[in-house]
Amino acid sequence: MRDAADVKLLWSNLYRVRTVFTSYYSVSESHRSYRLLSILAKYSSDIYELMLEPRERNSGLILRINYNRRLSPGVLAHANLLAAMSIISELVDGVSHMSEVPAVLLATFRSPDPSDIVSCSLTLSRSAPLNIRVKPVALAIVGGSAHNVRRVVGSLNEFVEEAQRSLEESVSAYRRDYTGIVKGVGSLGYKPIALVAVQNRAVSVEEIRAVVSDGSEYREVKIPLRTPEWTLDDLPPKIIEELRLVVVEPFKRGLPFAAKGTFITGPPGVGKSVMAEAIANALGLRVVELKPFTYRSMWYGATEKMLNAILNQVYKRRREVAIVIDDAEFLSSRRYTIHEAHLSELSTILYHLQRTDRPFTILTGNNPELLDPALLRPGRVDVIIVLGYPDREMRRKAILRNIDRYGIRVAGERTVDHMVSTTQWYSLAELDALIRLAASKGSGVIGMEEVEWARKRVAVSPSERRSVQDYLRWWSTKVQGVTVTYIPSESEIG
Q: Are residues 29 and 152 both part of a single domain?
């Protein structure tokens, strides 16, 4: 049995109730616990209505609270104590006229594990009869993951049963004069009223938050952290192994010479953003996207201040995040830039990319000649990846993946082969559009007729795309540094 740090019986003069409270950590009074109480108080009316519902109700309240500070067990225990003495006491007193007086069990946990209990309290009317049925409320600290919330919801009865058992054991062991109060309460005769899931962002941060405060100016920026959806298996087969060798394996093994940044270039729609996410996923990193509109300001000097603030926050989490700068052409070469604010912005990014403790950085762009050469030099961007239009093998892979992703049925054995052979010079984005268009025509079924109908509505110029492919092949031989290329020949595309 776990040891309780505090067991007490609380009487409320304002409400005609008594509360047995036990905590397994030293109670720590804090403004954070009062803040949490004020948030819970906003939803007390919802809990009150659920208490008045009949026992066979099938509904409940699941409340998620975002909290940006670390909540210690002592603070959580104090929040339980405050809630039991105010919100829960008021609720019990408000329905004490009923023939069946409710008792409310409030349990506080700090993880999705019923044994990880912080504190619990049982509140009931002073005149409550014996063998009343308990209505439980669970206050769970379950982290930022929606999976953890679903896990707790799925076994909520287990949580409150553990809380009741722990309460009985603690009271009987430490304060035997309270035992009669707890033992007089019957089993959990009601489904749990509510689950209050506090998302402790200090434990599982879901965003990067940067603040600039300078005199009368206060500006806050929040950039969400995303878990990559794409993997290396979604990339062209001919480039996967080279990426593992040059980028992924050295980084994952923590080698001092591992690449710290890549630049991915190619025409629109060939999968640059997909590759950026796939690389981040292979490295075991989440993605934070750096976009100009998040930090640029009309005021002199404010852009650099916010950009520095964002990057400094990212650097604190450099072991778990990758910076992705999509469409990096806004970091144009100094020979094309005429505004000093853009020069200052570029200089700030160049400085941060020069730091040895920088996080892994991925840039993408359609027009590499627009970027400043200093940005792409080795030491800042270590590996340059050049993507051309997909070959037959990649088109087949993309077609089958999209058919499966959209749940589309294919009519005819040769339909996929026909799509592969008739989509030369298509980008991956255009292949996706073609499949969706054909599926719309066939109401979810794709055959030869639907494919031909859709192809007439997707305009592709082979001659123009040949010249783009030739330019990429030429540029990849001129750029300095390590280059990984996927530029299929015309025979591979056809």
A: yes
Lowest mean pLDDT among 152-166, 244-258, 325-339: 325-339
Tell me, what CATH number does 367's domain have? 3.40.50.300
Mean pLDDT score of the chain, rounded to an integer? Answer: 81
The amino acid that residue 207 corresponds to is E
pLDDT above 70 (res 259):
yes
pLDDT in tens, 420-458: 999 999 999 999 999 999 999 999 999 999 999 999 999
**pLDDT for position 127:** 63
Q: Do 251 and 311 share a domain, yes or no? A: yes
Would you say the pTM of this structure is higher than 0.70?
A: no
Give the separation between CA 198 and CA 361, rounded to whole angstroms.
32
> Domain limits at 40?
6-200
Joined tokens for residue 218 = 């206060």
Write the CATH number for 413: 1.10.8.60
Distance CA 361, CA 259 (A): 10
**Which residues are within 8 A (CB) of 458 and not within 5 positions of it... i.e. 6 or more apart?**
426, 430, 433, 434, 437
Q: Please answer whether residues 370 and 468 qualify as being in contact, where contact means their C-beta atoms are separated by less than 8 angstroms.
A: no
As a whole number, mean pLDDT of residues 65-78 equals 76
For the beta carbon of residue 61, count every other beta carbon within 10 angstroms.
15
Q: Which two tokens stand for residue 195?
A: 């689950």
Do both 212 and 84 map to the same domain? no
Tally of domains in the chain: 3
Class of residue 302 by CB neighbours under 10 A (exposed 0-12, middle 13-18, buried 19+): middle
Query: What pLDDT is attached to residue 146?
Result: 59
Spatial distance between the Cα atoms of 368 and 252, rounded to a whole number of angstroms: 28
Q: Region 285-309: what's the mean pLDDT?
A: 83
Structure tokens at 82: 């405050």
